[in-house]
Amino acid sequence: MTMKKQMVSALKIIIPLIIGILLLWLTYRRMDFGSIAAVVRSGVNYPIILGSLFLGVGSNVLRGYRWQLLIKPLIPGEPPTRNRNAVYTSLGSYAVNMALPRAGEVWRCAEMGRYEKISFSRLLGTLFTERMVDLVMLGLILLSVVVGAGSFFGSFFQSNPELINRATLLLTSVSFYVILFACSGVVIGLYYYMKVCHPQHRFTQFVMRLAEGVKSILHLKKAFRFILYSLLIWLGYFLYFYVTFFAFDFTRDLGIGVGLIAFAMSALAVIVPVQGGIGPWHFMVISALMAFGVTHEDAGAFALIVHTLQTLGTIIAGIIAIFLLPLANKDYIRMSKETL
Predict the structure, then answer these.
(1) What are phi and psi of 44, to 5 degrees?
(2) Residue 339 main-chain phi, psi, to 5 deg
(3) Digit-coded pLDDT (tens) for 247-279
(4) Rounded Cα–Cα distance for residues 109 and 127 (Å)
(5) Looking at per-residue confidence, does 47 or 160 come out higher?
(6) Which residue has the higher pLDDT, 203 or 44?
(7) What is the C-alpha to C-alpha distance for residues 120 and 206, in angstroms, rounded to an integer?
(8) pLDDT tens-digit profile of 96-148?
(9) Is the pLDDT of residue 332 over 50?
C-alpha cells in the first residue's frame, strides 16, 4: 500500500472519530464531572447493564438469521448458506464499524461471499434492502412517538433551534433539489447507457447483481418469518436500551413511554456516520432525559456509562465472532454455480 493510500485510510478513521469526540466534548463541556464521577462510583447497578448486553447480542444474532432469508432467493436450487456464517459476519460487522463507520457492511458482504461463494454485489444489494426495512421500522417508531408525545419534539426543537433552522434551510433550498435530481438523473442515465451499450462491462454486471440482491425481498418464501424477525430485532434493541433505566435511581421510575422516546432519539443519532454514534448518541439521549426532569449531570452520567459499556460489549462480541468465523469454515466448501 502506498503512502497516499495509507494516509487516506487513516483519515477515513480519524476524521469521523475527531468529529465524534468534538461533539462529545461540546455535550459534556459544561457539566460537573464530580457529580458524574459520583454516579459512576456508586449510583449504578452494573449487573443490570451487563445483563442488557445479552439483549443486544441476541438482536444482532437475529439480524443474521433475517439476512439468511434474503440470501436464499439468490441461490435457488443450490445448497443453503450456513446460518452461523450469517450470524458471525453480522456480529463482526459491528466491531469493524467501530474502526471505520459503515465499513462493517462491506466487510460483512466480502466475508460472507468468500465463504459461501456468492458475489459481493448481490449480497450488498440484500443489505441495502435490509437497511430500507430498518428505516421503515425506525420511521414507525418515530411516528408512534410523535403521535403519543408530540409536545416532547416541540420542546426539544425549541431548546435546540439550530437543528430545525439547518434542516429548514436545507429542505427549502432550491439548490438541494436541483443537485439531488441531477445526481439521480446522471446515475440512472449512466446505468441505462451501460446496460444497452456495454451489457458485459464489469460496472453493468455489478449494478445488475446489486439490483438482484435488492429485489430478493420480492421472492421471499418465508415473508411472515422475515417480518417477525424484524419486529423482534427492534423490540430487542428497545429492551436493550430500556432495561438500563432500572440501573439508575433517577431513571427507573420514568416509565416505558419515556424509554421509547429516548430510544427513538438514540436510534436517530446512530445514523450519523461516526464510530458507534459517539457524541450524537450522548447528545440525543441527554436531551431526551432532561426533558423529563433528569438533571444535566445525571443524564450525562447515564449516557456515558450505558454507551461505553454497551459499545464495549458489542465490540467484544464482534471480535469473538471474527475469530470464530475462519475456525467454523476450516473445512467448509459450499458448492455453488456462481463464480466470484
Answers:
(1) -130, 135
(2) -105, 125
(3) 999 999 898 888 998 998 888 887 777 777 788
(4) 8
(5) 47
(6) 44
(7) 9
(8) 888 777 788 999 999 999 999 888 888 998 998 999 999 889 888 888 877 77
(9) yes
Q: How many angstroms separate the CA atoms of 55 and 42, rounded?
A: 24
What is d(CA 20, CA 25) in angstroms, rounded to the nearest whole number?
9
Q: Would the pTM count as exceeding 0.90?
A: no
Most confident segment among 11-25, 109-123, 154-168, 276-290: 109-123
Size of the chain in residues: 340
Question: Do 307 and 87 form a contact (C-beta atoms < 8 A)?
Answer: no
Using the CB atoms, write b or e for 291-319: b if 16+ within 10 Å.
bbebebbbbbbbbbbbbebbbebbbebbb
Alpha-carbon gap, residue 136 to 70, rounded angstroms: 17
Q: What is the dihedral of CA 156, 159, 163, 168, to 10 degrees?
A: 90
Which amino acid makes up residue 130? E
Distance in angstroms (rounded) separating the CA atoms of residues 198 and 202: 9
Report DSSP state, residue 335. Answer: -
Q: Which residues contact 315 (CB under 8 A, 6 or more apart)?
A: 94, 95, 98
What distance in Å separates the CA atoms of residue 325 and residue 281, rounded to the nearest whole number?
30
Specify the pLDDT at position 154: 62
Q: Who's near 71: CB < 8 A, 6+ residues apart? A: 81, 86, 112, 116, 118, 123, 126, 216
- Residue 153: DSSP 8-state: H
- The Cβ-side half-sphere exposure at 148, using a 13 Å CA radius, reads 13
Rounded to whole angstroms, the Cα distance separating 199 from 108 reads: 28
